[in-house]
């Protein structure tokens, strides 16, 4: 075998850690970006927030990869130590009072004691309005020292009372609302425990999803312990009878319809609270039938099954339509995800101005004190020698990379948003009906970026416009052919369909075929199946369900 040397030239793409971080930050949403910044601030001591708007050089765009020369190191070492050490910034964030309490409950308490204690209205020490003074907050108990400002009170400084606004803002859950009503009933301890168990078994819509046999077994095990032997059949039947009696009390509570096992029972409970009338009795009979017939509004079959006339059936369906299918809906504490726009578009003369939202831009900088201290102690005693200095230098470089990548992220978002505004200028002047077809490749070719980069930028990023806040992907849509040979945006077609349906006669709603014909009259070629797909995307019911009775 002959040995020799050869030279070969090849190209390959290497994803450096900096590039990987840049790609990952680009696809994060505003909330995820804020979490990433907080995590990096906790992990990297060289990063700190600044309230001042930093210049581009402060973000490290120019000197992020430049090595520190020997002359700079000597100059920094010659600086007085007093100039390098700065006083830490005062913490001006909100202070959280921490109150700890100990429980005096006996260790041998039974499985049902917790239920009985909660039924008696017992509350933890930190939630009680009254006490013997053992849980008072001393001025120096704060985590940040004794300089914590006193909490504002609507009663002129009385800490033992809460303002009406604070009480109004506190959410009340469905279970708390029902427990408050249960305390007004004069029940034995066993009946109160059964009612408490049923209230805690309700789902968010105020329905009982489990059947009575499973609930009876669960209640028995809760009262006797999980490790107890299996109960006898007679004992389970007695527990089930007790739960059925408690269910009757529960179903007479407010909101009406609570404790139902299915939709039909929920509607029947609400109809029974109405004034007795032929229409109400007909509605009660309809609710005893299949809910599928009610959803389809099959009046002829409902009339035949319930023995009522057409007019009474329509009046009964009108009553059912006014009922609440989910009684617990108003008690659900929904986390409203407030959309914070990344880009703001405003009118500027005859054009539009595109700016980044300053509220979502993290203002970071490299901590000069730590950076200078590390450079002065290079190879010294405090950092573990050369190895420690190399590790800290790596952390400093990571901080510079992170700041640079954040700046590049917002620069890319601004460039893409400006290109979108330029392409969709008619939308910002006339609304969604003037939207033009646009694909990711057009923006990518214009900016010299890859199509996948545009996809990352437009995902979970939002733009505030004069017509509302939209995701950047909203401005991209496929095209439909027109009679004149041009193209119409699918977004504009959906807006046109929404306009047609909003102006239709409720007694004679437009079918998908009729909507397709109306689009053809506008010069847009759109098949019936495409109309049905767009209508479903808009969450609009078909014509037979939109028809008013």
Percent of residues in beta strands:
5-15%
Radius of gyration: 34 Å
Number of β-strand runs: 8
| Low-confidence segments | 54-168
Looking at how many chains there are and whether they match, the oligomeric state comes to single chain
Physical arrangement of strands within the biggest beta sheet: 3-2-5-6
Distance between the termini: 93 Å
Global outline: extended
Largest sheet report: 4 strands, mixed
Task: Enumerate how many helices there are, as a single number.
Answer: 24
Global structural class? mainly alpha
Mean pLDDT: 76
Give the helix proportion (percent range): 40-55%
Summarize the structure.
The chain is mostly helical.
What's the topology here?
Layout: H1 17-26, H2 30-43, E1 47-49, H3 70-77, H4 81-84, H5 113-119, H6 164-169, H7 174-182, H8 189-200, H9 212-224, H10 233-251, H11 263-271, H12 278-287, H13 291-296, H14 299-306, H15 310-321, E2 343-348, E3 351-356, E4 364-366, H16 368-376, H17 385-423, H18 425-430, H19 440-447, H20 451-458, E5 462-465, E6 468-471, E7 479-481, E8 487-489, H21 490-502, H22 512-521, H23 528-537, H24 543-546
Parallel strand pairs: 2-5
Antiparallel strand pairs: 1-4, 2-3, 5-6, 7-8
